Amino acid sequence: DPDELKHALALLSSAKYLPVIADNQYNITYEQCHIYRSERFNESFHLEDTSINRQFPLAFNILMYENVEQFERLLRIIYRPQNFYCIHVDSDASLNVFEGVKSIVQCFSNVFLSSKREKVLYATFSRLQADLNCMQDLIKYPSWKYLLNIANTELPLKTNSELVKILSIYRGYNDIEGRWKTRIISRTKYVWKIINTTSTSYLSHLRQTNENKKPPPGNIEIVKGSAYGAFSRAFIEFIQTSSIAKELLDWSRDTLTPDEHYWATLNYNTHLHPPGGYQG
What we know:
38% helix; 2 domains; 5-stranded mixed beta sheet; alpha/beta; globular; 15% strand; single chain; 12 helices; two-stranded antiparallel sheet
């Protein structure tokens, strides 16, 4: 909308500089939680949420490495008391980040830190494992219908009500991107090895070997997708209990960016009977 864009640019040009809240300033005590929630999370608004939304709880994985203020902004936008939120703080994150997030989540019964933490290296299995850790924690809560995995650097384009409306229409089907023609074969054809866990430049910590991987299990065709999606509860249960899902997971450990093929491959190989899956 050109008019809205002009309006947004005008607001940005006239906005006063807002200082960033340092990570170590998030040191909320448990005794301060009631004040913190009432001042920062608009509790009256959440209590007035519609009955339709309350009957369709959602679950969220949030992966983060830095910037507690950004995480708080995201949580304030997506938080609803009927939903559940698992926060994975990278094990390599600073102590100030971890303690800051910890001080926030202690104030909510439905927001918690993941029970296992990973040192996430870009394009490696650790990125996928971080999501799986949170999924393992979230499945213990029986009421949510769909799970969405996001990064703390994101902000939603849909309200909770809009998400509920869309996901209700899905009737248990997943929303997982899948592509065949644009798949980069080398990502899964060869074994990839981590050679440097400290490098920060793009993919310099990984090396493609000349070793061919064995074919994926179960007559599976690898499908390129996205690291993110909207997953039905039944699909998450399938990932955690299905032997073929576990075999594919193990097979993916030495591939490049396994988080970008694991969900899509399970979803689109319908002979595996994945809940909510479909043919592309």
